[in-house]
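$ run holo --ligand "uric acid" --emit tokens
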Amino acid sequence: MANELDGFNFEQRHGKARVRVARVWRNKSDHIHSMVEWGVSISLLSDCVNSYVREDNSDIVATDTMKNTVYVKAKECSEQLSAENFAILLARHFTSFYKQVTTAIVKIVEKPWERVHINGQPHGHGFKLGSEKHTAEVTVQKSGALKLTSGIEGLSVLKTTKSGFEGFIRDQYTALPETRERMLATEVTALWRQTPSLYLVTVKYSYESASSIPKNPLYFTERYLDVKKSLANTFFGPPKEGVYSASVQRTLFLMAKAVLNRFPDISSIQLKMPNIHFLPVNISSKENTIVKFNDDVFLPTDEPHGSIEASLSRFWSKM
Ligand SMILES: O=c1[nH]c(=O)c2[nH]c(=O)[nH]c2[nH]1
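-- output --
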């Protein structure tokens, strides 16, 4: 919320960060349980300037109330739903329930609990922690206008060949040799804007209304898994022959393009792909070579790392 105050510009928002909640759904007929664990962060833009300029808190939604609301709404969700749908439901609650609230921003990070398999059989109530995380962030205005961004955090991928880096600028500061054989490792962070496909053709600029959210409560969970698959398939290539990467930049672009080509209801995607270096190990004494690198022994590092990021969007997208 921006205001003019005593000749200054004043902006404020308040909320509760990282409210942790787990929700279990028990199927009475087949005894199969589903569960999610979410870290929910809420930020409200609201007309509560009086709490800043005088001792008047009468327009404040207490952040403690926001926290409680997460648990109340989780309780009310009798059916399993995606992080996106829960974020939308919460944000719509805050903007419709409180006259002071003009915009609600809700971000959810889902912990990667995955159902375990025992002897190839899915376990009814056993879960283990995976690695990469599903994120969802929604901004809902009082009018109902809605902006939805989903994402992946911490998707660590590596390939031991089919990667090189050649033809870059060489000058008096350059030591890096050109190569067509190196390790390629990165930790992908992706963010993408969602637009339900049904509405793509007809309402391509105002799909952001709450009523255009797909009915299937797990639509965005499935979409998350499909995007992840598309990113991984493009990074690795086919199982036997793989695919050559001329640079992290090139691979990033192909990954982003694969997602936009595959999913018409995604209007833009941003990818961050640090180049995590595995350095060739060469050790020698004055007299002789102790270890000579032959694409076999590497020194794994985490810093410094290359930082490569880009976004790709359709022309009409507003990301
Ligand atoms: O794929 C790469 N992109 C770069 O921009 C770069 N820079 C560098 O030193 N190594 C690499 N690798």
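-- notes --
The two ends are 21 Å apart (CA to CA).
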